Each structure stands twice: as structure tokens, then as C-alpha cells.
Amino acid sequence: MKHEPTPVQTARRRWFAAAGAVGAAAAAASVLPVAPGAPTVRADATPTPPRRGGGYHVSAHVQRYYETTRV
């Protein structure tokens, strides 16, 4: 007697098959060489600071939040 899979089982099998395919594609892409002329990211590159001066500052929005957290 042959058992027919339910729609849930079929959907689950398709999902796992797709997840396996995505994982295999990611593994393959990680070992492929970089195309010539493609931009590369240097690990030692320093980020550029924001134009406004950056860093933490207490804005009106942040001040309102602080006021709501007082006990």
C-alpha cells in the first residue's frame, strides 16, 4: 500500500529542497574569484565620518524618550 504525501509534507519538502539549493549557491559563490574591475572592500579602510559631525547627541526625540523611561 502506497502512502500519498499530504500537501503540508510536500510543501515542507519543497522548502527544505529550496533551502539546500540556496545554501549550495552561497557556498559556491564564496569560492568564486572576483571579477576584474569589480570594487573590493579593504579590511583596513577607515570609515568616513558623517558630515554633521557625527557621534551621539541628545536631540528632542531622544530627550522625549528619556522622559518616558523615568520611574
Topology:
Elements: H1 7-31, H2 60-68
Summarize this structure as a short list of keywords or feature phrases.
mainly alpha; flat; 71 residues
Structure write-up:
- This protein is mainly alpha-helical and 71 residues long.
- It has a domain at 1-30.
- The protein is built from 2 helices and no strands.
- It has helices at residues 7-31, 60-68.
- It starts with 6 loop residues before the first helix and ends with a helix.
- The mean pLDDT is 81.
Taking the alpha carbons of the first and last residues, their distance comes to 68 Å
Amount of beta strand: under 5%
Secondary-structure element string: HH
How many beta-strand elements?
0
Give a quick summary of the entry:
With 71 residues, this protein is mostly helical. It contains 2 helices and no strands.
